[in-house]
Amino acid sequence: MKVINVRDIMIGEGMPKVIVPLVEKTESKLIDECVRIMEFNPDIIEWRVDSLSTVEDLYSVQRLLELIRGEIGDIPLLFTFRTIEEGGNKKVSLPYYKELLNTAIQSRLVDLVDIELNMDEETVNELVASAKEFGVYVVMSNHDFQQTPMKEEIIRRLCKMQDLGADIPKIAVMSTNTKDVVTLLDASQELRSKYLECPFIAISMGKMGIISRLAGEIFGSAATFASVVNQSAPGQIPISEVRNILHLINHYSK
Ligand SMILES: O=C1C[C@@](O)(C(=O)O)C[C@@H](O)[C@@H]1O
């Protein structure tokens, strides 16, 4: 399994890395949120830019990227515009989605960029090439807020992401019963043992899925999303509690 070194955070090695989302809507609240989050020293910060009220203004996004980087220092930053189709907050045109991601990629202020698998293949290829050119790692993502697909389908989607050049394939699917959670975990352990050479993230959303946010070291998921001020998806747990459990699993599973 490849290990990805992002500002000395080794993704794919040891304990799953803890990613905390920034989801405030306005500049001042976003900066306050950054300050609060920094007290908890997350491994990675995700800016869910689709929450920003001025996301359609590239100048505002660029300025905020600079302010966020100023607050978070050397913590790796993941730039995510989650589309409405996959659980995000705002609808933008395809040309704007590309422009927004390219602005972030070319800013040299972000370390990782989220590219959704369900974009058309040409868009995905273009954005992956641009990220590679500027040395930004690609987290390729897919979400299902309604259900958990079959294990074979989860595996197929993550393998496709690897083939398309993702550095870190990622899937988050909703669980409505324990079988769904087992399906996601079973897909994870098979992805790790048989299919993927790169680190990946696999999450079962919702209350029953919380085990998938904690047991990545056992089943293969290389990172987990945790909350400080706000949740960005159902089932996220506060960072201190996640860290305690990750340490406990790390310690007693050896
Ligand atoms: O894709 C993901 C995972 C997530 O949906 C979760 O379930 O924790 C949270 C999102 O912010 C992130 O972009």
Keywords:
254 residues; alpha/beta; nine-stranded parallel sheet; two-stranded antiparallel ribbon; 11 strands; 43% helix; binds 1,3,4-trihydroxy-5-OXO-cyclohexanecarboxylic acid
Task: Record the SSE blueprint.
Layout: E1 4-6, E2 9-11, E3 17-22, H1 27-38, E4 44-48, H2 58-72, E5 77-80, H3 94-107, E6 112-116, H4 121-133, E7 137-144, H5 151-163, E8 168-174, H6 178-195, E9 201-205, H7 210-214, H8 216-219, E10 223-227, E11 237-238, H9 239-252
Could you explain the architecture of this structure?
This protein has 254 residues and is an alpha/beta fold. It has a single domain, classed as Alpha-Beta Barrel (TIM Barrel), CATH 3.20.20. The protein has 9 helices and 11 strands. It has a 9-stranded parallel sheet. Strand 5 (77-80), helix 3 and strand 6 form a beta-alpha-beta unit. The chain is globular and about 45 Å long. The mean pLDDT is 97. 1,3,4-trihydroxy-5-OXO-cyclohexanecarboxylic acid (DQA) binds at residues 21, 46, 48, 80, 82, 141, 143, 170, 172, 203, 205, 225, 232-233, 236.
